[in-house]
Design brief:
Blueprint (H helix, E strand, L loop, with lengths): L15 H12 L3 H33 L5 H44 L4 H6 L2 H43 L1 H47 L2 H6 L3 H53 L5 H13 L1 H27 L22 E8 L9 E8 L3 E6 L6 H8 L7 E6 L2 E2 L5 H6 L1 E4 L10 H5 L8 H10 L3 H6 L17 H14 L4 E5 L7 H14 L4 E5 L11 E6 L2 E6 L1 H7 L1 H9 L7
Parallel strand pairs: 3-8, 3-9, 6-7, 7-8
Antiparallel strand pairs: 1-2, 1-4, 4-5, 9-10
Helix pairs in contact: 1-10, 2-3, 2-5, 2-9, 3-5, 5-6, 5-9, 5-10, 6-8, 6-10, 8-9, 8-10, 14-16, 18-19
Length: 590
């Protein structure tokens, strides 16, 4: 027995080690540009480190009556060269950061499109979209700038400390005492920034979810007079994002001002202690000046370290949300150009198939068995909830059967490569979705290589040629968001034409004519009958008038197959079918 895997969860936050490992995974492919940016930043930092020593030499030269022109020229050259190199390094890092974001988005989008249907139904699409957009944006700073800032800040800080120790160890001890005191306070703030940022990002995801929910049913919202209520729902999520964003900004402001506070306090302490040491003759005034310059030089590396930690705390929240998408179950990736090698209509067989959508839910199918030979039309009928549409979902492997076997051409669907299996199937969903874009793009969506002759043929067969003639730009006319510029019947006919253009071996029609008028329904019924002569057609129908001429009808009820036969046979042998037919005035009431 094959057990359908339960949907995974992405709600468990990543540990600090997992987050760091995920960050390294994003940076590793770009390690050489990051290393170049780091090298340039270090060169710029080295130029800054030389300035206090040059100043000390300049003061000593003035005290001895010597010339200072050479020192000034050398110092100017160091500053200009260091600034130019640092600017180039900053460009390299920004470019690399954009590359990291691009790679993350490509990976995420590729993964989202391969999500199993069960995962897609569990996680709101709006939240998934926010992870591709706003969460990946936070990677920009943490993936490169934070890494380099941490490295250069640490190196410059250590180098400055070494130079300050060389000038005077006592003053260094005073400086480090103040820095450690302020740094301890900052360390308490950082986790608060991480929590506030993650909650803010989650609230941004809620905004996307609320907008996707509302805009996806825009006419219903307006018809229900629900604009104000839905606006309030989105505003509530926006306020939560604002509240957590402000909280994060508050703690960031505290952390951001800590470096200046540490240096200012250290300056006052060093000025007091250093002044006393100069007065006592223990150090020359030039050493005190150089030490104070190094002290102010510390502002930049300490600021870089704090910014790096702050960016990491912000980015860690985004990395955690992005990485949790990778926990979601996906289908195998498609290989470009992979097609089915077999030709001709396909056979279908269900052998004691059981299925439920989740381990905690009741079974939708109970030992369902039937066999469909190649060609001909087979209809699935029965009350709502009987499991008819689930048959198609299992054939397409949107879900895996919990038990039993499903065979296409006497081969278990689990043994078919997914691209090969689906390339043999044309599928028209119950709500017949039409994508934003032109009519031509919608027709070619499942068969991008179809010729103009094939398009004209399928337009004629589905009665869409008259629609194309009315459109201002013919096939290149935009159809609006989700086909909003088309009627429900026109959307259904486009969906059928799209499936036929694929020339499938197996055609699945799920309530494909429910929105058609009687004339168009009759015309499309003739088209389906014609197609059934060259391919295997499976139809789910509530309107029995569309399937009375089917080669066989499978009657389902409560997840089981009651009977199989033709319309006339089932009227005599199946009481449920006879009741359904009588309700729809297709048979006398018995």
């Amino acid at each position: 027995m094959n057990t359908a895997s339960a949907p995974t969860t992405d709600e468990t936050p990543l540990s600090a080690r997992e987050t760091l490992r995920a960050l390294c995974g994003y940076v590793r492919p770009h390690r050489w540009p990051v290393a170049l940016g780091l090298l340039c930043a270090l060169v710029g930092a080295a130029g800054g480190l030389l300035q206090p020593l040059a100043t000390k030499a300049l003061v000593d030269r003035l005290a001895s009556g010597g010339t200072i022109a050479g020192i000034l020229v050398a110092l100017t050259a160091v500053v200009v060269l260091g600034t130019a190199i640092e600017a180039f390094g900053a460009y390299v890092l920004e470019r690399t950061a954009e590359s990291v974001v691009l790679a993350a988005r490509r990976t995420l989008v590729g993964r989202l499109f391969r999500l199993r249907i069960a995962e897609w139904e569990r996680v709101p699409p709006g939240d998934l979209m926010s992870r591709v957009t706003s969460d990946t944006t936070l990677l920009r700073a943490v993936s490169t700038q934070a890494v380099v800032s941490a490295a250069t800040g640490a190196v410059a800080f250590v180098a400055a400390i070494v130079m300050m120790a060389y000038l005077d160890a006592v003053l260094l001890g005073v400086t480090l005492g103040v820095v450690v005191l302020v740094g301890g306070a900052v360390a308490l703030v950082m986790p608060r920034i991480a929590r506030a940022t993650e909650r803010a990002q989650e609230a941004v995801g809620e905004i996307s979810v609320a907008l996707e929910r509302t805009l996806g049913a825009f006419r219903t919202v307006k018809a229900s007079g629900a604009e104000e209520r839905e606006t309030a729902r989105v505003e509530a999520a926006a306020r939560r994002a604002w509240r957590h964003g402000v909280k994060s900004a508050k703690w960031e402001a505290v952390a951001g001002s800590a470096d200046e506070l540490a240096v200012q306090l250290a300056f006052l302490a060093v000025l007091a202690v250093g002044g006393a040491r100069v007065a006592s003759g223990e150090i020359p005034v030039s050493a005190l000046i150089a030490f104070l310059l190094y002290l102010f030089y510390l502002i930049e590396p300490v600021s870089k370290l704090i910014d790096a930690v702050t960016s990491y705390q912000e980015g860690a929240a985004a990395i955690s949300r992005i990485a949790r998408v990778e926990r979601l179950a996906t289908e195998p990736s498609s290989r470009p150009g992979q097609k089915t090698a077999a030709q001709g209509p396909a056979s279908v067989r269900f052998e004691d198939v059981s299925f439920r959508y989740h381990p905690g839910l009741p079974y939708t199918h109970h030992q369902v068995s039937f066999e469909i030979p190649p060609t001909g039309m087979t209809a699935f009928v029965g009350p709502s909830g009987a499991g008819k549409s689930t048959v198609f979902a299992l054939i397409e492997r949107f879900y895996e059967a919990t038990g039993g076997r499903i065979l296409i051409d006497d081969k278990d669907v689990r043994d078919w490569p997914l691209p090969e299996l689906r390339s043999a199937i044309g599928y028209v969903e119950q709500d017949a979705p039409v994508l934003a874009g032109t009519l031509r793009e919608n027709l070619l969506f499942a068969a991008p290589a179809a010729t103009d002759d094939a398009i004209r043929d399928v337009l004629s067969r589905t009665g869409l040629d008259a629609l194309v003639a009315r459109l201002p730009h013919g096939l290149d006319t935009p159809v609006g968001h989700r086909g909003s510029k088309l009627s429900g019947g026109e959307r259904q006919r486009i969906a059928i034409a799209r499936a036929l253009l694929r020339r499938p071996r197996l055609l699945l029609l799920d309530e494909a004519t429910s929105q058609l008028d009687a004339v168009n329904e009759l015309a499309l019924r003739d088209v389906v009958a014609e197609v059934a002569g060259e391919t295997t057609v499976l139809v789910v129908a509530h309107r029995l008038s569309t399937v009375t001429g089917a080669d066989r009808i499978v009657v389902m009820d409560a997840g089981r197959v009651r009977s199989v036969g033709t319309h006339e046979e089932l009227l005599d042998t199946d009481r449920l079918y006879a009741q359904l037919a009588a309700t729809q005035l297709l048979a006398p009431t018995r």
